[in-house]
Structures are given as structure tokens and as C-alpha cells.
Design brief:
The chain has 322 residues and is an alpha/beta fold. The protein has two domains: 150 residues, 3-Layer(aba) Sandwich (Rossmann fold), CATH 3.40.50; 136 residues, no CATH class. It has 14 helices and six strands. The chain has a six-stranded parallel β-sheet with strand order 3-2-1-4-5-6. α4 packs across α6. The longest helix is centred in the N-terminal third of the chain and has 19 residues. The chain starts with a helix and ends in a 5-residue tail after the last helix.
């Protein structure tokens, strides 16, 4: 460990960590999207099964009556569950849908996934719109309820990050709280818990959407548009961090990042900026997934070496001479 710490001190700002949600999960924190699904059911008594759990209510102009949290959460859960089963049938055969594709599915919602054609009316469209407009509030409430101090640290994961920059796709402060990484070293690209920053989540725009004709269909279209993740704009807003990603970056260490379709532009921006001979390290959590990730990184235009690892000392010892 002494040698490892010497390496950290010797090589400043030549390493970029890409931190995804799998990192928090490896720290034994309940941050998977399946945990968000569970939170909605437990916190708001959302019902996964019966559509009539929406209850009967009226939206009146004068006193502005509207659905309550249970009705909103039920609508969200049922819409997402139904769309998951339709779009990802292989991974959603079980009674309990897998919310790992939560962000992607926000771009694939369809009215008919839940309601019959005869139930397509303006009121049901408004119900959906109101429910999904509350999704960011429920999402923040959930992720900020996670107690980072209960994390179980990853053995040998470097503390302080003295030679590195961190691009974190997580909202939690695990890096700061558990590993003493200075906040100025971290770019919370999608927002940070405990601040007033918007917590970003969403999908890549889908050009295959058909024109929505009915009022209810238009409401669904509005919902899909609400959760388009404008990656180019996010990069622009964080240009100070991306400017630091220059030819001095000789290592990229990826931990718990899934390389989803919506985040491709982030990776291309990194590759464009860093040293062309850099080595890209993938923490090998699941070998099958690691192989897919290697192909994705190559597809983004990365020409350097891609190495999978399970020993936290390897990324430094492999390419740094003492």
C-alpha cells in the first residue's frame, strides 16, 4: 500500500475516473433503480397491479384538486412496468419488472401500454402528465434518503484521489464522504445531492416516434420530451471540467459505469480530449458486461489499449515506472 500511495503522489492529474451507479452499489448503497421502484411502493403506497388504484378524482379549476402522491406514484409505476414488459420482454418475464432500464424506458412510454383504446381520453392523458411531472420530486426524495455514511468501502480503492479527476454520474457524495476525494476534483455531471442542482436523468431522443394525434397521445409525447437528456448542453455547462481533460490524461479508470446509449456523447468527448495512447481500465464486475463495454468504447473511437481488472493496484502498477 505504501508503494501505491507513492505512485498516487508522483503522478498528478494524469488519471480520469469515470464513476457510475455500480460504484455505489459496490459500496453496498441502495442506489439501483430497482430500489427506486421499491421506494415508490413503500413511501407512497404505489400499487403495481390494479389500475383502479388511481382512485376517482376531479381536476377542478377553482380549488385545483389534483391526484395525490399515491395516485401519482401508482401511475408512474404502472406505466413504467408495462412499458418495460413490452420493450424488454426477455428481462421482464418475472412478476417483478427490472427497472435497470428506467431511464431508457422514459423515451418509450406509450398510452396503450396501460389503457385500452376505448379509455383514451383527455382526462387520462392529464393524469399521466401530472404524475410524471412529479417524478423529479420523488426521485430526489429517494436518492437523498440514501445514507452515504452506511457505505461499505471497496477494499484498496484509493483515497483522496491526489493524481486524478473524477467524472461522477452519481448523485451521492460517496467519493467525498467515504474516500476523502476533494470536491474540486469531482464533476457531478448529473447533479449532486444536498445542493440546489437539478438531478438529471432521462433518455436519448428517439426519432422513430410517430406524430401524436389525440390529446392523450400528445400528453405522452410531452412526458417523453420532458425526459430527453440534452448531453451536448450538459457538456457545455461543465466545460471547465472537460477543459481539464487534456493530453496529460494517460489513464481512464471506469467503475460501475454501464455505457448506456444516452451517455455516448460524454465518452466521445473524453476520447477526443485525452492522450491518444491512454489506457482505458474497466473494473471487471461481470465479465459478460465487460466484454460488451470494451466493444462500445472501441465504437466510440478509442484506439488505445482497453484492460479489465479486479485488483485495484493494477491500473497504476501496469503503466507507471517507479
Amino acid at each position: 500500500m505504501k508503494i501505491f500511495n507513492q505512485i498516487l503522489k508522483k503522478n498528478r492529474n494524469d488519471t480520469l475516473y469515470v464513476i457510475g451507479n455500480g460504484f455505489d452499489v459496490q459500496n453496498n448503497l441502495p442506489t439501483s433503480y430497482n430500489k427506486f421502484h421499491t421506494y415508490l411502493k413503500n413511501r407512497y403506497a404505489a400499487n403495481d397491479v390494479y389500475l383502479n388504484e388511481f382512485g376517482r378524482f376531479e381536476i377542478k379549476r377553482k380549488n385545483k384538486n389534483a391526484p395525490n402522491d399515491k395516485q401519482n406514484a401508482t401511475c408512474i409505476c404502472q406505466m413504467i412496468n408495462a412499458s418495460l414488459k413490452k420493450n424488454f420482454p426477455k428481462s421482464n418475464k418475472a412478476t417483478q419488472p427490472d427497472w435497470c432500464d428506467f431511464e431508457t424506458i422514459l423515451g418509450k412510454l406509450r398510452y396503450e401500454d396501460v389503457w385500452e383504446e376505448g379509455e383514451k381520453n383527455e382526462l387520462n392523458g392529464v393524469i399521466m402528465h401530472i404524475a410524471f411531472s412529479q417524478l423529479p420530486t420523488y426521485f430526489r426524495s429517494w436518492i437523498e434518503s440514501v445514507d452515504v455514511k452506511k457505505a461499505v468501502p471497496i477494499k484498496d480503492f484509493p483515497k483522496r484521489g491526489e493524481n486524478a479527476l473524477f467524472l461522477s454520474f452519481n448523485y451521492t457524495t460517496t467519493l467525498e464522504t467515504i474516500y476523502d476525494v476533494p470536491a474540486e476534483k469531482i464533476c457531478y455531471i448529473h447533479g449532486k445531492c444536498g445542493t440546489e442542482q437539478e438531478l438529471l436523468f432521462g433518455h436519448k431522443e428517439n426519432n422513430e416516434w410517430q406524430d401524436d394525434t389525440s390529446s392523450a397521445d400528445r400528453q405522452i409525447g410531452i412526458i417523453r420530451d420532458m425526459y430527453i437528456k440534452d448531453v451536448q448542453e450538459v457538456i457545455r455547462q461543465n466545460k471547465d471540467f472537460f477543459t481539464k481533460l487534456n493530453k496529460n490524461i494517460k489513464r481512464v479508470i471506469s467503475v460501475g459505469f454501464s455505457y448506456g446509449e444516452v451517455d455516448e456523447l460524454y465518452m466521445r468527448e473524453i476520447i477526443r480530449r485525452i492522450n491518444k495512447n491512454a489506457v482505458w481500465y474497466l473494473f471487471d464486475f461481470k465479465s459478460e458486461e465487460t466484454l460488451k463495454q470494451k466493444e462500445k468504447i472501441k465504437g466510440y473511437g478509442f484506439k488505445g489499449e482497453i484492460v479489465s481488472f479486479k485488483n485495484w493496484k493494477e491500473p497504476y502498477l501496469k503503466s507507471v515506472s517507479l
